[in-house]
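Consider the following assembly input.
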Amino acid sequence: MNKTLLANIDDPRSADLDFYEQNGGYESLRKALPMDPGVIIENVKNANLRGRGGAGFPTGMKWTFASGDPKFPKYLVCNADEGEPGTFKDRPILEKNPHILIEGMAISAHALKSDYGYIYLRGEYPDARVILEQAIDQAYEKKYLGDNVMGSGKKFHLSVHVGAGAYICGEETALIESLEGKKGQPRLKPPFPVSVGAWGLPTIVNNVETLSNLPLLIRIGPEQYAAIGSPECPGPKLYSVSGHVERPGVLELPMGTSLKEIIYEHCGGIKGGKTLKAVIPGGISTPVLPHDKIDCPMDFVNMPKHGSMLGSGAVIVMDESVCMVKVCLRAIKFFEHESCGKCTPCKDGTGWLRRILARIEQGEGHKDDIDLLVSIAGNIAGKTFCPLGDGTASVVQNFVKHFRAEFESHITGRGCPF
Amino acid sequence: MIKVTINGKEIELEQPETILKAARKAGIKIPTLCHHDWLKMYGGCRLCLVEIEKMPRLQPACSFLVSDGMVVTTESEQISAVRRGVLEFILINHPLDCPFCDKAGECELQDAVYIYGPSSGRFKEQKIKHPENNTDPLLARNMERCIACTRCVRMCEDVQGAYAIAMTNRGDRTLMEPFSGNRFDCEYCGNCLTVCPVGSILSRPSKSSYRPWQMDANIATVCSYCGVGCLLNLQVRDESIKKVIPVEDAALRSSFERFGPGVAEKNTEKNLYENSVENRKSLNRGLLCALGRFGHEYVDSRERLTSPMVRKNGKLVETSWDEALDFVALKLNEIKNSSGGSALAGIASPRCTNEDNYIFQKFMRGVLGTNNIDSTARLGFAGAQAYLENLMGQGITANPISDLEDADVIFVVGGDPTIATPVLGLNIRAAAAKGAKIITLGRAAGLGRSKPKEITANLFTENKVLERLLALLFSKKEMTGELPAFEEKLKAAAAAPPAEKTTEVTGVTEAEMAEISEIVASAESFAVVIGSDIVQRAAGHCGLFCLAGISYLASGRIFLLSDRPNEQGLIDMGCLPDRLPGGQSLAIDGFRKKYEEISGLTAPPDKGLTLFPMLKAISEGEIKGLYVMGENPALNLPNWPAGDTRKSKIKSLELLVVQDIFPTETSAMADVVLPALSWAEREGTYTNLEHRIQVLRRAVKNMTYGRDDWRIIAEISSRMGTAMKFSSPADIMAEIVRVSPVHRDLRYPDIEKGTMLCRPYKGQPSKSQAGGVVHGEGFKDLIKTCDRPGGSLDDKKSMHRDFVLLLERSLFYSGVTSRKTPALSRIRPDAAVLRMHPEDAAPGLVEGGRVRVSSPSSEETLELETVFDSSVPRGAVKIPEYLEDLGVGALSLITNLPVDPVTKAPAFEECRVTVEAV
């Protein structure tokens, strides 16, 4: 398959507007501007584009809700707060191919009748900020942004807003709070951002990768687009692979490529010829899969059938040398640190889990601790304000489910066997 | 119609509500912690999660709206487990220090755990520690106990509008902090205390002193500070007020916070709850201010007057009541017999009850034979109200404070309502939060967050601005014909000078005036809030005329701010030189005859002196005897006649009687000092600025030899040969309702029921009274004075070589009782400073340097530290109204203020002082 999202990113000029234009850049925007906004939304629906941020919500449906709201202005927000451990798929777009995102946002803004857009960028991507702002300046110069986009009369202004490093701001309502200048904490839903979002106005929040799919979708049309990868959720997909593989990195593959194929064919297999122990397939909050359960198509529909989720497509590969208790502890430490403090189960539960896991890892575990962990996780799961708590619970539940023996050996052996 | 089923019970609702509210209607209790009825929805604690049919996840009842056909279960095995789990999570980091936590016994977490919590804990790790922070003088923060419900923050931001605190950090390190990290430095309303469900925010004055169940009594009464008259609950133990909480808070706690699972609310308790919500809507809505909440310690002060005192050989010495009262009766008789009643005068008190003030004026008129009766209400409120009523009809200022919240345009003139009347100020902030436009003319920093349209006029040119606004509005609005005489005068007044001239004088552009008049003209519900600054002018009544006109043209309501608890009451009781109780003019014989008939005494027919002519008459020796009840004029008034020194006897006075609860600057000069009772020790009624009459209840026993103000006067009266046979305030009220037409048919039980007893007390709030207006006497004269409403200000452009003295009011300090309240003194910001514009500083004067302030008319001088502040108008200096550190009021410098010819209020723009570097 030809790369589109990551096309030409090995070329040093890839972030430059001229280079992007020479390779057919902004042609899709030119094609989209005369189109009726409703038709574009129909195309997105027909293409069955699903949000790439992790939840896989049908983009066309979100757009239909937003365009149905009579309030204006509407805000289009690109969620570039890529903060989940293991996830770095958006980074090459932001740093190497920023114009595909800008073009995608301009097309989306036309479809959504939105005049103002923001790129909410994670604070830890300082280079991306510089690159994006340069790209935006270039796009303004060439009238791809501004009061009269490509002479069509369409207005679209875009700017970058840098977050302050909170994972929770990847959740769209917390992102909006942060964008408004407040502490990043999720809001009550309903109302959903598509009707009451930033500053009380309709706001559409889409992931970097989702928006970057628009130029391709417009160029080849919904039928051809829908033919790429898995039929239920087609299109190209970025997988960010890290851990014990020979060739880690970001891959652009058709949606639904099998996890096994990704690891063994595209990434050259396990590093140093060791054996695989476990894979976290979609970022740290998705359930871990043991080595014998990785023959599964990596898409939104099939992964749940195999006991995990696609998430952001962040594949973390762990070989036989890795202590699963330590991985679990490390993950929970992350969630404890990132819990925003709004709701009780996540606020207090994650810290409790971490303290128990730390004890087990240090060899001070008690035989009842494993059941306690599962019970605490159960008291968190489904009870929290936002999905952060569910992610926390699922990490503990799945590590214990698949690797209970390792937990037990930490307790009986009074320490880490690795 | 929406039908929902909760626990098998079908409920029909008119419109979507939260599951929690719907369940309450059906008498089903769902436990909550972060939810509070007065605050925005939050959904954080997760204690109220319920099952909804066909929904995979549990949903929070506090914030999930019902929809038609929804089937909800609030009690099940699963939900019980969830509640146990949530409470277990809260308790892991919550210190289990209930045995010494002040909140134990009224802690919502304790209650919730008692009913829903796990019976044992599984937590074996280290709890997170946060040492208690006691750096603030009034509020202690114990963040170990904080459950991060954010109720305090939501109260502070969304209701109080102060934005003084925030939740900081994340996860289980989340805690509330004021922005300094230490002291709160806020408005100290303490409303965060009201909503904190646990013992995280505590009042330091009452901390570690008692437990809730150790209280002897909870007494619902009225606040003693400003004219709003908030309802308070005094928590009393051992004859001492330990803590003040809002009445509604107490009602809420006792009614619905303490139920078992699924228990239907009992009827009585439900009524209590609903009643409390009604109260909340109608007056202070469960909110208090710093003075109301923390300003009660003076009752217990050791400085209280404990015994009568009579001046002997130049010194005040303690005597028996009999001796003191006989002495007063004797001296008063002497003066009356030798010089006549007109040589006697009385100053009544806006801090005393209606009954005290009624007896006071009855004594002055009927026994001493004088109409020389006035009070500090003359500083603005009394004259302004009389003038407005004369123009527009009696009761024109009797508008419910809660109406402010529904106004869409509010014009605030002449003072900061968030300082003079803090809880009324909250109504304005609430209106702004709902989208109302606020326009300010004059100082109103407390409304800064309500995005006011500020009219910044040159110093003392407000009347010119108002005159122009009136003219512009006149051209935009049709007159209704409701008040023909007033309309005639409006027509004349609307022929205002050309715009350029106004702009030249005021510094306000015509475009700005046009914009503001357009906002007012397009208002659907307009309100004018008038503070005393605009009244205290040489032509103050002219500004009032314009405001009356603006309000009339825009169909507005007028709110006259009052910073004393019973200014309205003392006016209603006839403590005025020209009016009998009920606002009846003394000049109308029929009124006087009726008054004499019912009271059984004779009232002199001629008008008495208003306050400032009265002070002048004292200086000039025309008045020989002055009776002061519950007031400290030597501190609170300009133009006070000087003795040899500030604390010596005034030579021209043969007798000065002071009735008070503290020794004051005035009592130091007195011949006789009589100890009275404090607000918490007596009964009676107060009338607030919206004319609501409310009952004051006795909360503590008097520990001094003090007596009720009215009893002292009745005693003197009988010693002078006129018996006053009253046994209680209710007795006095029985006579008041016969004398005063506005109090007709009112009885104590009516007042005690008391939610909406506004004047006319048996009917609707009386804006409509304006329709049937009967103009008071002298209406024609009043209008004549205002033929040019801008007054003589044309000539006032040039400033004197000296500075104009502006007095700064503090939110934490109101004059007398607040001075004797340590809690308030501790939060009072730096006191003895003078603020001036940096460009006004004389050569050699540096910031922080000391200056001497003097006035040509007084020998007094003040030495103060300078602070440069570019918000002070050029040519003016600002000094706090009370300089406690120096033991003086800034007004003691001022001895020669002229008064407005109509309202007789002092002209504060004539406060001229000289400022020299020391």
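The two ends of chain A are 41 Å apart (CA to CA). Ask yourself how this observation constrains the way the partners meet.
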